[in-house]
Amino acid sequence: MEKQKLIRIFDKQANQYEKKREDTTQKRWRKHLVSHARGEVLELAVGAGANFPFYPPGIKVTATDFSEAMLEKAKQAATHYHIDSDFICSDIEEMSFPDQSFDTIVSTLSFCSYNHPLMVLDKISRWCKPDGQILFLEHGVSYNPALSIVQKVFNPLLYRVYGCHHTRNIVGLIQESGLVIHKMESYWKGMVHLIWAKPKQKFID
Questions:
Q1: Is the CB of residue 102 less than 8 Å from the CB of residue 123?
Q2: Helix 117-127 to helix 170-177 angle, to the nearest 10 degrees?
Q3: Is position 139 within any domain?
Q4: CB contact at 8 A, 39 and 104
Q5: Can you give the pLDDT at residue 91?
Q6: pLDDT tens per residue, range 114-143
Q7: Could you give the angle at which helices 68-80 and 3-12 cross, rounded to 10 degrees?
């Protein structure tokens, strides 16, 4: 999908994403994952700031998103939850940070939309400090054969409407990227994964 069209789709969903901050299941997953963040944090595709209630004290968040409407919601959330934060409106696939800039990198429900997910995984591996951590809450194709068939049938429609692929093998992509998975929890027949990872081995002392 053309990038500007994708941005318009997410702009239109900003109010809906803001309401999702109150979703009970997502709140439980986000708290379980994001409470482990520390130090200088980079959050990819921050959306409406759904993770902000769960960050521990003493962190600094650099929050990115290519949707200005989403960032406006996230800024309101950061103020409400007293998050020390900076905001960058840009496409993460086009962004650059110095290597080893962040102690923690957080991605929640963002890898379904990237055109080049392996490229983004390579970037965040370089941007993470050698002793840092990369935290994922992502969704993708189920390990259940029947469910995966349904996902594949409806994926083209869902992508056009929501800008989101439902058939990506998230665990496979992370493994292919060379990131080191330290811990993983899967839910909803493998459609949702919480993953604690480390940068590629070559960046570890």
A1: no
A2: 50
A3: yes
A4: yes
A5: 93
A6: 999 999 999 999 999 999 999 999 999 999
A7: 40
Residue 203 domain-assigned (yes or no) = no
Q: Measured between alpha carbons, how far is 149 from 132 in angstroms, rounded to an integer? A: 37
Residue 92: domain span: 3-198
pTM of full prediction above 0.70: yes
In a domain, 62, yes or no: yes
DSSP category for residue 58: T
Say if CB 84 and CB 63 are below 8 A apart.
no
Residue found by looking up tokens 């939309």 in the block: 113
Give Cα 154 to chain centroid, integer Å: 22
* CATH number of the domain that residue 62 is part of: 3.40.50.150
Q: Per the domain annotation, does 204 fall within a domain? A: no
Strands 102-108 and 192-198: unpaired
Q: Residue 205: how many CA atoms within 13 Å on its side-chain side?
A: 5
The count of structural domains within the chain is 1
d(CA 153, CA 150): 5
Tokens of 83: 């998050």
- H helices of the chain, in order, are 3-12, 14-20, 24-34, 68-80, 117-127, 145-162, 170-177
